[in-house]
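TICKET: design request
STATUS: open
ATTACHED STRUCTURE:
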């Protein structure tokens, strides 16, 4: 990454508007500043802490180490955890040096406000301070709105629009599940008209696909250099254009809504809208609003991980079809008796256990408890986490601890269902519970506020899917392994096959009765 940028600024015409000689001098000055900043940024705050990814002699940049971590993060973290056990160690990840702490410190640190997730996300991970990256900075507003407003009653699912009504086997992929998760969540967040607008969905995905690649380029540089690198990379201007496209697509929807609200109020009727667009209006009031930024922010928080969890759960079930029958029987028994409502969904213990087990085997992150230290923090053992430190914990080590999870490599969909029967496990077993041993929704003051909505959405989707469809793994994907890129697991590339079946319960009618 460094080589490409140095090459770009050293080319003739790198600084248009300047003469050739002046442009050349400007290139040299910028290159010198970049080198000086690189050298400054590589100062090690933790010289006494073991390094699992040490530099080689005469190695001037961290480019090699960052690329190795992107490709082999699980192996690098496993090596560090095995070698150094209960002491901190450091690694160079895709965005720089990270202090990796042993998991036993999570209880001590989980509620410390000086260890901030928002600062890590916005400053280190996704550059929310740069033009075009604004949706990544919408997290604080999202955290306010999700627990305050979200109605957990999700409506009818038109699965045939996304899958099939055919009784022949039809292949689907992760994108089909992403479309389903997006439509489910958008129906709640944005209303039925926008959630079905293909132009909005395309503009949204175009922006997100570009922003991910650009984020990775910028993350390869020290924090102090990223605003400079951002301006040197041509793709930055494309990102801003795509964000503006999202605003343009949303604008007529907002104007139409405003007219409907105005007419309703003129007739003395209440505002007919109760969705995240209106919730955002309620929270911001007369302040400056950017609906596209907020809606993309909600998508980033709610959709990709929901879709990925759903795909992983379906993959595990398709590999073990005997459990599809078990889940189907539970849905018929519980929802057939209690209806399709919040109370009934909480009684789907086997489904809940399946979801949690799939996330345990294939979590979202390789590094858990990601934080940035806003000030020095001294732990009970005397070790000091220094201001500005980026830290995390080995997530795989925690999810695969055989003292907590017997036979941790084995898929056991009844694992957490059985845990409910234990006095010490009853409160830990549900999917929505955050514990140090299972970090699907984080832990402490930064645990995910939308986990109740996400779990509800997942259960409703699974209920429809197992009742309305038969499932199996597409040929060639039986042994598909999780894919990792640095601190994250990549979305599944598994393909499944589905065929329509006659469901025993009319879930669509039951859903309509709960509105």
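STATUS: resolved
RESOLUTION: sequence designed for all positions
ATTACHED SEQUENCE:
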């Amino acid at each position: 990454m460094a080589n490409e940028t140095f090459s770009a600024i050293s080319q003739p015409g790198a600084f248009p508007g300047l003469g050739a000689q002046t442009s050349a001098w400007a290139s040299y000055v910028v290159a010198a500043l970049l080198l000086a900043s690189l050298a400054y940024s590589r100062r090690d705050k933790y010289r006494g802490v073991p390094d699992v990814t040490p530099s080689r002699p005469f190695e001037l940049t961290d480019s090699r180490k960052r690329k190795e971590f992107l490709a082999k993060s699980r192996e690098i973290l496993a090596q560090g955890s095995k070698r150094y056990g209960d002491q901190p160690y450091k690694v160079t990840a895709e965005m720089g040096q990270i202090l990796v702490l042993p998991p036993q410190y999570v209880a001590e640190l989980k509620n410390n406000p000086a260890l901030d997730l928002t600062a890590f996300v916005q400053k280190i991970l996704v550059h929310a301070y740069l033009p075009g990256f604004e949706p990544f900075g919408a997290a604080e507003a999202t955290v306010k709105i999700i627990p305050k407003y979200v109605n957990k009653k999700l409506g009818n699912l038109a699965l045939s629009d996304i899958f099939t009504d055919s009784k022949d086997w039809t292949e689907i992929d992760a994108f089909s599940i992403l479309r389903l998760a997006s439509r489910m969540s958008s129906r709640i967040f944005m209303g039925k008209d926008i959630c079905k607008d293909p132009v909005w969905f395309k503009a949204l995905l175009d922006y997100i696909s570009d922003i991910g690649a650009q984020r990775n380029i910028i993350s390869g540089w020290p924090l102090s250099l990223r605003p400079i690198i951002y301006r040197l990379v041509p793709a930055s201007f494309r990102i801003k254009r795509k964000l503006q496209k999202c605003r343009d697509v949303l604008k007529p929807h907002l104007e139409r809504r405003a007219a409907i609200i105005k007419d309703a109020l003129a007739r003395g009727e209440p505002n007919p809208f109760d969705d995240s667009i209106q919730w955002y209006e309620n929270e911001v009031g007369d302040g400056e609003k950017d609906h596209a930024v907020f809606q993309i922010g909600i998508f980033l928080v709610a959709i990709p991980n929901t879709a990925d969890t759903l795909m992983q759960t379906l993959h595990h079930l398709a590999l073990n079809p005997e459990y599809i029958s078990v889940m189907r029987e539970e849905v018929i028994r519980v929802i057939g008796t209690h209806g399709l409502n919040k109370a009934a969904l909480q009684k789907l213990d086997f489904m809940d256990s399946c979801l949690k087990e799939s996330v345990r085997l294939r979590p979202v992150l390789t590094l858990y408890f990601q934080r940035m230290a806003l000030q020095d923090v001294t732990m009970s053992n005397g070790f000091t986490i220094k201001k500005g430190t980026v830290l995390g914990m080995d997530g795989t080590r925690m999810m695969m601890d055989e003292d907590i999870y017997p036979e941790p490599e084995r898929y056991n969909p009844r694992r957490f269902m059985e845990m409910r029967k234990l006095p010490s496990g009853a409160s830990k077993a549900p999917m929505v519970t955050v514990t140090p041993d299972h970090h699907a929704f984080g832990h402490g003051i930064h645990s995910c506020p939308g986990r109740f909505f996400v779990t509800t959405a997942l259960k409703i989707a699974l209920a429809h899917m197992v009742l309305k469809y038969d499932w199996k793994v597409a040929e060639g994907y039986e042994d598909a392994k999780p894919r990792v890129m640095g601190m994250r697991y990549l979305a599944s590339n598994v393909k499944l096959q589905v065929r329509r079946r006659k469901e025993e319960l009319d879930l669509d009618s039951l859903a309509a009765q709960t509105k």
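CLOSING REMARK: The two ends are 52 Å apart (CA to CA). DSSP finds 21 helices and twelve strands in the chain.
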